[in-house]
Specification:
about 375 residues, alpha+beta, Rossmann fold, 2 domains, eight-stranded antiparallel sheet, five-stranded parallel sheet, globular
Amino acid sequence: MSDQRADRLEISQGVHNLLFNCARCRPGETVLLAYEPGQFGYFDDQLRSEFIHEAEKGGFVVNSVDVGFSPTTPTISNKLLEEMKGVDVVVFLARLGDQLRFSELPAGPRFVVCFAHNKELLSSAFGAADYGAFVELKHVVDQALLEAERIEITCPAGTKIEGSIEDKSKSPEDTSLLRFPMSVFSPVPAAGFSGKFALGGFLTGTGSRYYEPYTVEFEGQVYAHFFKGRLVVFSGKSTDVILANAHYDRVASKYNLARNIVHSWHAGIHPGCSFPWDMRADFEHWGGTAFGNPRVLHFHTCGAYAPGEISWNLFDPTIKINGVAIWEDGVFYPDRLTGGRDVLARFPSVAKIFANPDRRIGLGDVT
């Protein structure tokens, strides 16, 4: 078997997972692929061509439309609206889908945004692991967090955060389209949380808008101190603190945002999610992919909405729910949650991924 044939077999599993398990497609339905050309340096053109090939082979009618890339003003164009008419599913191989993930979308099609931006990711355990298992695990985590009386977050760099969801009458809010792969639980409102967050060496964007500079890096350890969902102060090396405050001032004034709002947070739940490249070579790709790995936890800040415009990221979190470590040093243990063990038992192929998680998140500490 040639390498090309082997690649084809592998990516077919990811495409099948997206179309059948995520989008709930049936052969004969029409799929609109809303794509971002490779010239923008984010989504791989080969991924698009492979996706179309596999979808057509699976019995789907596939149309495609170039949606380009708008760094700061993402919208559904009239052209895209016209192309959507009569289609069953819209799959975004474009950052536009990510930018619109908390927006109201037109009625009619089912919408999916793909976070596997190249063929390697879509044909890995990240793309191929049964989507349904992670939807179930997400619901298990959502319910545990909603009911929790006390949630504690720590990390090796000195994070110490405590709190709980204050309004337990509300169901967790999530995106307005389907996220593929499913790699995080619903955003947890941060209004009930306070503490010290150990930033992972930088501040970067959230994938909502793209501005310059999108990322600022620090020389030393910086902590973000916040109380009841509001940033109070940064601490650390004086030059780093000045840099952090200047970045917040710049982004908040650019978009007229509530500067000090700490809106919500979540951590990765997908042990097949990996980023085997240097994060500092491309923070935009890193921020759009690695957040799904259980080694990464991030907060949405700078703006009174999800996902805000500046994210805080920490590594190897321990998250205790009512005293039980559900995440421990960056490893997610769903079997420690009510219902989690049952999910793994029904999806043995996913249980194998949890038994051997991919811990590559762009730090160069794992090969």
